[in-house]
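step: validate -> pass
step: tokenize input -> pass
step: predict -> running
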Amino acid sequence: MPCSDRLETFINIHLQTLYRAALSVAGNVPDAEDAVQEACLRFLERPPHTTRDAELRAWLLRVTVNAAIDAKRERKRHPTEELLDVYPAPDGETRELMSTILELPPRERAAVYLFYYEGYSTEETAHILHCRPGTARSLLSRAREHLRQKLKGEIEL
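step: predict -> pass
step: emit ->
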């Protein structure tokens, strides 16, 4: 079994343990998921020099817990509020649209916000998102399609 397949299998075996550890430290699902993702990426990019399963598991747990602590610390430094509470939409239809936009994947959501709400061109949106203009147009297209499917034609886009 190639090394990368072995590492991926190892991560999948311990994923629930990592998630529970991160959740117990971070105290919320998004930060726990981010911590686990960070640990898994570090593990796949630069695994520790040991091949013993117990040491690999300990290393993964340590990295996960440290990432969860960092996320919790960051949330304390920069508290957030629910976006719809901070920027309430005036009517039900607009509020539904905003709620659906908030469900989009982050890059699509960012592209929609920059293009439609801030009025940036696709070139400017691409520059802000550090991608090519074609990628920005693709993000907008996918976002429109996701919104169309979720709203089922209730609101004109």
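step: describe -> The mean pLDDT is 80.
step: cleanup -> pass
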